Amino acid sequence: MPLFWKAYTSDVTDFIADLKKKDPSLEARQLSGRGLLWDKQINAGLAAEQRAAKVPQQPYVYQTKV
């Protein structure tokens, strides 16, 4: 392995690293944005109620019941 060998990093990885250097608060803003949509507390009682109310699908969806 030569002395000038450098591990490969993709252009995208370099871009993201450069972006984080320019704006150190970026990661904190990403986490707060993720909290708005993804990190939600699940109400276990409501989830169980929704699972219990689920109607099973027919084997052939377009067949009407007679």
UniProtKB/TrEMBL annotation:
UniProt-listed Pfam families: DUF3460
Organism domain of life: Bacteria
InterPro entries in the record: DUF3460
Name used for this protein in its record: Uncharacterized protein DUF3460
Species assigned in the record: Rivibacter subsaxonicus
